[in-house]
Amino acid sequence: FGGNKSNISTGPIKLNITNLDYGVSDSDIKELFSEFGNMKNAAVHYDRTGRSLGTAHVMFDRRSDGMKAIKQYNGVHLDGRPMNIAINGESSGIASMNGAASNGRSFRGGRGGGSN
Length: 116
What we know:
Blueprint: H1 5-10, E1 13-18, H2 26-33, E2 39-46, E3 52-60, H3 63-73, E4 77-78, E5 81-82, E6 84-87, E7 106-107
Parallel strand pairs: 4-7
Antiparallel strand pairs: 1-3, 1-6, 2-3, 4-5
């Protein structure tokens, strides 16, 4: 485990977001998560035909910013579906960190629901 503890607590962090509505866009994710700090990148994942996979990632410069995002938005509904947010490479047991995460908050994302 060595002496790299400071990098683990302060370095960049990548969050995986799952259970997204298929109408959620890159700009929705960027707008939603930008309030927590400087993002290296953020993107919704699409298949080869351009259809959303219902997943996305957000990478923050600082781990603490990512942890704030998890605490605030894990389990919160975006376009009617609760977001599942986990640190890349770790199990999704993060949900237990914030108990009832929704805080009664729900977001539409800017597009409303899509009709497929």
